[in-house]
Amino acid sequence: MEIQGKIIQVLPERGGVSQRTGSEWKVASYIIETMEQYPKKCVFEVFGSDRIAQMNIQVGQTLTVSLDIDAHEYNGRWFNTIRAWRAVPYDPNAPVAAPAADPAVAAFPPVQPAADTPFPPAQPSDSAPAAPATPPFGGESTDDLPF
Q1: What fold does the segment set 2-89 form as a domain?
Q2: What is the tens place of the pLDDT at every residue in 83-131?
């Protein structure tokens, strides 16, 4: 998934030592704000000191960020993790990737009327809809409904 926007905040780096491997780790978190009519904010992480240094994300940069979204469960609660694996300067002239066609829709082509159907396909009408059968407010109704 990709998101384009401006980095509005860089959060303090977190780090520690892995209990399993004994190696050090670092995570940096960033807040990006999209450039839509109604901007949205998203926090994402960059894992690893080498990637943090390589991406060198700063406040005020306008970037296209490629993200992986994952969820994990801890003590019966679920948490999302949004990690960046690439961040490049935003290019407004770059072609926008077309969304992939929905395979469920592509599996069923549009329905065409059969050639031997007894009824022709319905044509849109240019005339106004028929007037209601009941008279306007206050008039006498011809139906037998109690209301």
Answers
A1: OB fold (Dihydrolipoamide Acetyltransferase, E2P) (2.40.50)
A2: 999 999 988 777 655 445 555 555 555 555 555 555 555 565 555 556 5
